[in-house]
Amino acid sequence: MANTFSNFAIKGLTKVGNIYCPKNDEFPAFSDVAGTYKLNDLVRNVPSDDFSSLNLVLAIFAFLPNFIINWIISKCQQSQANPSDGIIPSTLRQLNIGLRGLCYSIYYSEFNNPDFKGKTPLQVIDYSLNRITD
Amino acid sequence: MIYDFIVVGSGSGGGALSYYLNKSGAKVLLIEAGHFYRKDTFPKTEAETSAHLYWGGGIEFGKDGKMGFLRTKMVGGSSIVYQCLMDRFDDIAFNDWKSESGVEWFNNAEMDKHYNQVESDMVLHTFVPEERNGNAKLFVEACDKLGYKWGNLRRGQSNCGAEKGNDCIGCLGGCFRDSKQSSLVAFIQKAEKEGLEIITETEINKVEPGNDTCKIHGLQNGNKVSFEGKKVILSGGAFGTTRMMTLSGFKSKFPALGKKFASHPQFMWLGFQNEPVDAHKKMFQAVASKDDSFRAQGFKLENVFASPISIGMLMNETGAEHQRLMKQYRYMQCIEVAVRDENVGEIMCDNKGKLTIVKPLTDQDKTRRNKGLQAIENILTTAGAKEIYKSNFYFGLHLMGGCVMGTDASKSVVNPDFQVHGEKTLYIADSSIYPNAPGINPGLTIKSLGHRLAMQLLK
What we know:
The complex is a heterodimer of chains A (about 130) and B (about 450).
Chain A (H helix, E strand, L loop, with lengths): L6 H14 L9 H4 L5 H4 L5 H16 L2 H16 L5 H21 L13 H4 L10
Helix pairs in contact in A: 1-4, 1-6, 5-6
Chain B lengths: L1 E7 L3 H12 L4 E4 L14 H8 L6 E2 L5 E3 L21 H11 L6 H13 L3 E3 L7 H13 L3 E3 L1 E3 L26 H11 L3 E3 L2 E8 L4 E7 L2 E12 L2 H11 L18 E7 L14 E3 L2 H6 L1 E4 L5 H7 L4 H8 L5 E8 L6 E4 L5 E4 L4 H20 L4 E10 L29 E3 L14 H15 L2
Parallel strand pairs in B: 1-2, 1-11, 2-8, 4-18, 11-19
Antiparallel strand pairs in B: 3-4, 5-7, 6-13, 9-10, 10-11, 12-15, 12-18, 14-15, 16-17
């Protein structure tokens, strides 16, 4: 069965995304620019048991206050900055990469919210690529 | 139907091998677990490249969650997304292989004819100074000041369109010009025109070697399928081939199965310059270190870069600090150290096929890493970086070992003839047979080993 995020998970991801990528100077907030229509396609090759865990964690985030999500993300960062052994640090590191990967894949991509009218993150960092095919 | 040869996996080893076998007129079937993309169907964005072309939807982790592994899933395998840098092994690499495995033909004199043949079947290009982008220029100038030796890279490419303004970093998601000499371009598409049969999106989970033929079984779109060949050659890479062998019950026969895994751990650091570097523009990787002292110390430096999502993943910061760093994307100079690591890793597979990777960094690995990172810091500082971002995220692209070659069946899985010890109809030809980490880009040698096996099978 295809990996499909629940509505709660998308709400949780939006909260996490706004912590990773808030509105700041020229940068738009994740929730303003992210085109969540692409999310399910981006996880189509993720093993189903890994996806189920991610979907559940994000859905729980939908109900948590931001200060608790911030605390969890700071623990994830610490597990990466000062890597130690054990199942909890290992899980936090993988959660850290999984959440950042998902957020950045949407934020720094062409898959923007069609209603967003401002400068996209790729435009803010002045990124462009020439593809000459002939 | 009984094929003369069935090759499972279409990366560097499987692609070249199936090409040479097919060329002889033999009836060859090439089986691939992933999708068959062409130059006009490769993903066009970085986000889709990660999500669509890699097992696990982007990155897989070792058991301790410290190191990421990048493993591709499509026709052409890793050769589609790598830089196609074509380096021959030196005597150091072959001598270490020979010492570890007992295989006498691991030497340049014996491999020369295979390298020559593979190189003649590809279009190779050695970069010239005019092709260097901002990142390469900074690297060369700083290395010269520090007395570090460097060299122009040799790459498999035919027509990159750089003179027209094409930015080659885009081909890390598959070359949309058919310029990069991936297995797909250099071998598989040519063989396809000459009758090579290719079956995709079929994952083989069991091999049953017999005296006269070898049967293999797997799933195609959820349906069970089986094939039979006089000879079956596994080329699914370190993870894929080890998985197939373990699921087929060989672990009890070969204690070495899954062992001796190495991956050339890679660490990328960034230097922020006052003027735009535009490391993502033009030919984005043209030079690398070529310093004997670096080689002796067990590391090499590569002048690389990545697209925005990947660069963002190097950074552990969130919010405004992350955005401050990313705002300087065009001002980033980037260098990577690849460590010639000890082969103490292990690839394990449960009875459902789920992989668990154990890959610690040894004290020697850490020493080599630290020396490489110090050299990077020296280069970035000499180049005038106003700030250095020292990412501690690391990953492995060169996945090697798990089914290593050797003369002793108690310490290896295949014999010096690429044959699984004691099995007449089952062979392995990919990076899983590497006895240890060479510290050199493995692609050309994987193809050349494929050529060697093809010549042997066709005798």
